[in-house]
Design a protein that fits this description.
Layout lengths: L3 H18 L5 H18 L4 H22 L13 E5 L8 E6 L2 E7 L11 E8 L2 E6 H4 L2
Parallel strand pairs: 3-5
Antiparallel strand pairs: 1-2, 1-4, 2-3, 4-5
Helix pairs in contact: 1-2, 2-3
């Protein structure tokens, strides 16, 4: 029967390799690193299997939480599935933000083309959302 050190080394290597093929936001990688640490510790101070498993679980949890704290994943831009219409409440100057009425609420909005300005009371299409800002295009530009 293989030693627990070899099993931890194989498990750690396997988990680290899984991260290459199936991105899991560093969870599998951190669990693999924990298994490699436990493999090293099993040779020195951790003799009993149950203690190795407990240390692995604690290390995995700690490393996953720390990776979330220090590694920021890129935020996804929320996309609106279908182009919805809105109406400008204020002017949207070229390259700046204004306000639109969308689904009964006032939203911060910016024109998708930074060289275009949109006057107030114009119908616009909402193409996507970035955080709490709607990205819009004027109706007359799209129908020309």
């Amino acid at each position: 029967m293989p030693s627990t050190t070899l099993i931890w080394l194989l498990a750690g290597s396997g988990l680290c390799l899984i991260e290459l093929f199936v991105p899991t936001a560093f969870v599998a990688f951190m669990m693999g690193i924990s298994a490699l640490i436990v493999a090293f510790l099993s040779q020195t101070i951790l003799g009993q299997l149950w203690l190795q498993v407990v240390v692995w679980l604690l290390l995995s949890t700690l490393l996953v939480l720390l990776s979330r704290r220090f590694v920021r994943l890129p935020q996804r831009r929320a996309k609106i599935q279908h182009a919805m219409t809105a109406e400008t409440l204020t002017e949207i100057p070229a390259g700046k933000s204004g306000r639109v009425l969308y689904e009964g609420n006032s939203w911060r909005a910016r024109c998708d083309d930074e060289k275009l300005s949109i006057p107030p009371n114009q119908r616009v299409y909402v193409t996507r959302r970035e955080g709490i800002t709607l990205i819009v295009m004027p109706e007359n530009v799209l129908h020309s």
